[in-house]
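haha ok so turns out i had the wrong file open the whole time. this is the CORRECT one, sorry everyone. sequence first:
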Amino acid sequence: MRGILTGVAVAVFAVMVAGADVVSELRPTIRDVAQQNGVDPVLMEAIIRHESANATSCAARTRNNLAGIMGRRGQRSYASKEDCVKHLGSILAKYKARGRVTVSQIGRIYCQTRSPWASYVRTFMGHIRRGRWGDVSIYNLPDQQGKS
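then structure:
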């Protein structure tokens, strides 16, 4: 019986992994919001992937809060995932206007704990740039210009 249950669990996990990647599906929105706010789309996607456990966290599923954005009464709720992406873009634009542009500088304000947040976000950024979740040419990254 245990072997059957293990097989079923493995099959369910395989289907979940092979299923649509919610964050990758948001790349057009991430790109547009990043351009409008003058911020790095890879940074935005990395924050989203880290803060929402790749859009699987409770806040991502029930509140459309992909970025762990807090309000006065805890985790904020959004009408859509796109609305959360827009808010994240505006937050990062404010940080940039105040001279906070590195992941470490952003993390000190965004996360406000001594966690290895910046390290995790940088790791996600590397995975994104290397194509772990598919082609990122939509972001028009500098090392992709001129490639078809």
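The first strand starts at residue 70 and ends at 71.
again sry for the mixup
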